[in-house]
Amino acid sequence: MTLAPALFAEPAPRAARLAIALEAEGLVLPEGPICIYRPRAGERFAPLPTDRLHLVQGFRPDHDALTGAGYTVGVAPVAADCALICLPRAKAEGLGLIAEAIRLGARLVLVDGQKTEGVESVLRAVRARVAVGGVVSKAHGKLFWFAPEGETFADWQMQETTINDPDLGPFQTVPGLFSSDGVDPASQLLARALPESLPARMADLGAGWGYLSAACLSRAGIEALHLVEAESRALDLARRNVTDPRAEFHWADATSFTLPEPVGGVVMNPPFHTGRKAQPALGLGFIGSAARMLSGRGQLWLVANRHLPYEAALAEQFSTHSLLADTGTFRVWHATGPRKRPGKVTRHKG
User: Fold this and answer.
1) CB 3.0-4.6 Å disulfide test: which of 17, 41, 212, 218 passes with 62?
2) Cα dist. 259→20, 24, 262 in Å?
């Protein structure tokens, strides 16, 4: 059988658990396609036959990295006899992925995750319904598997939630997305800080399901607004939530995204987590991307948690920056004049 390309000298935890299950625990996979839900960049699945794998990942950086590693990757699941669920952080999303795999015909479901991803809780939820065929514990995580045995798990399917905003109307979200149960308070703070009139060409980096974009389009002046979002599920919802014809949608990594022509304004509430680990470098990448895509007189509106080290980057990459709001938890910054070459730093504080 064809094996996946080796990405690491030593097996990663998920691959190591799979190898133990197949070689030592007697796990036998059914013939036919194997659908792997929500794998991350850098992962490998060497114990599994690559020619039978279909990876499902809608987060663009992970999607592109896995494709580059030689896997077949799509944003939508396919019918498969066997499914491997790589647990995400949100339990409701993980349960929903299990239900989706069973709905699409999986006769064997494997679930893998770290303890920090709630694998123990998901294991208990499955055991409450069906017999679990086996469990492998290794490297602070677990892999377990089961046959649905006629149980549909339909009540675990992810349900959309409607968020009713008094000013901007209803929005649809689903579990697993950022601020899936309500409008993020930091985004609300930024929306209130926006001026009544905005530049003609704008971009919303990390647009999510569209709240900030809708707030921008409620202002005067905009002729085109580019929504840039790396998570395909969030972008699909943004297309439904933001129906204004001035909106343009881009499934892309905001840290490397470019447009043919510069824009006059950028808004963003950048992410700063990878899993449970804080990664301020993500927000710094968003700031750098905004500076690159803005015109010489372009403006940036940014909201972030107060403790994040973004002010130095704003001072370095923009001619001026000012603090529009500070709640003690969040800060809203306004920066203008992205630097195209070294120059004098001008700082303003509100």
Assistant:
1) 41
2) 47, 52, 7
